[in-house]
Amino acid sequence: MRLKKSxxxxxxxxxxxxxxxxxxxxxxxxxxxxxxxxSYKSGTIDGPKAIxxxxxxxxxYDEETEKEVSKLGIHTAGEIRSSELQPEDVIKKVEKKTxxxxxxxxxxxxxxxxxSITLGPVxxxxxxxxxxxxxxxxxxxxxxxxxxxxxxxxxxxxxRITEITDVVQIGIRSLSKEEAEKGHKxxxxxxxxxxxxxxxxxxxxxxxxxEKKVYVTIDMDVFDPSIMPSVGTPEPGGMGWYETLLLLKRxxxxxxxxxxxxxxxxxxxxxxxxxFLAAKLVYKFLNYIFVK
Length: 292
Fold this sequence. Notes:
Layout: E1 27-34, H1 47-55, E2 74-76, E3 80-82, H2 87-103, E4 107-112, H3 119-129, E5 133-137, H4 157-162, E6 167-172, H5 177-180, E7 187-191, H6 192-195, H7 201-208, E8 213-219, H8 241-254, E9 256-263, H9 273-290
Parallel strand pairs: 1-2, 1-3, 1-4, 4-9, 5-6, 5-8, 6-7, 8-9
């Protein structure tokens, strides 16, 4: 069984057929347009299209690795889009489609969409790989048990994942009193306030991941709002572009990445720079993972 194809003008990187067909692709982009549980500013439903559209104007050649990971083939699946389905239903859809990707021996990249969708690929990875760790790049802890009436809210995603496997959080700078309580199971948090005073935070964070296999979830609000204003809940004092790349490059060398997502982009009309940053981040990370 194959995933529904995307339209030609919605192919990641704008790749021609020989580098974007299902059969010829090692990598599959799964766009999930969803924002039912978002708080403060909505708009993440438009994030996947904005990322794919921006990616069509990137150079496929990566100046750092001196390679083109797109030559491995990047297939863009048809978009999962809903503004009405309950998060549990969307998560099931994402889980099913991610499992199709994994069972076909391909590498899944999920682009959102709000952060609640991450549970889908995490559940798929548990079925496929058994033991693995999750690395979360985020401004927010997302460790509430229930938020605004939802157990599967974007503000509960880390809590749900810790019920499945261990999570290492990076870049955290906002959390509730409930989330700040000590003794959370399967959780290690690196706060931004401590990271800026340490030269070893990346080494320590990667070393805290218990398993060799790692799934990575990247909430765009992990970045400082000066370079990533297009998020629902921007928090000051976030990560920069190059320190994030250094982390992902080192992680790719030391761990086996089994999939990742980039979520919570809420495009701002007239400001395409954040869209391009998100697209470039996805492509750079793929280069680190596949170009050794």
